[in-house]
Write a structure and sequence with these properties.
Layout (H helix, E strand, L loop, with lengths): L1 E4 L5 E4 L8 H13 L7 H14 L2 H8 L2 H9 L3
Antiparallel strand pairs: 1-2
Length: 80
């Protein structure tokens, strides 16, 4: 088990891989959900479609996808 340094002298336990608390996993799920019914002729069409989806993201959407209340609460308690 690894422990991360919080900089304030405390240690925060985090399992080696925890997709449930990794915000990028939720972003990948969001992207995959929007691409799952497409059949792309080539990688360029995939790149263009993915680029369009990413350009539509705003702070509100990103926050709704990646913001876990329990992580925000933990960061507040840790004064980070």
């Amino acid at each position: 088990m690894r422990r991360g340094n919080l900089g304030a002298g405390g240690a925060l336990f985090q399992p080696p891989y925890t997709p449930e608390v990794n915000p990028i996993e939720r972003l990948w799920r969001y992207l995959k959900d929007r691409l799952e019914w497409y059949v792309f002729e080539n990688l360029e069409f995939l790149r263009i479609t993915l680029s369009k989806i990413l350009h539509k993201l705003n702070n509100s959407i990103i926050s709704s996808i990646t913001c876990y209340p329990f992580i925000v609460d933990a960061l507040c308690v840790a004064n980070i």
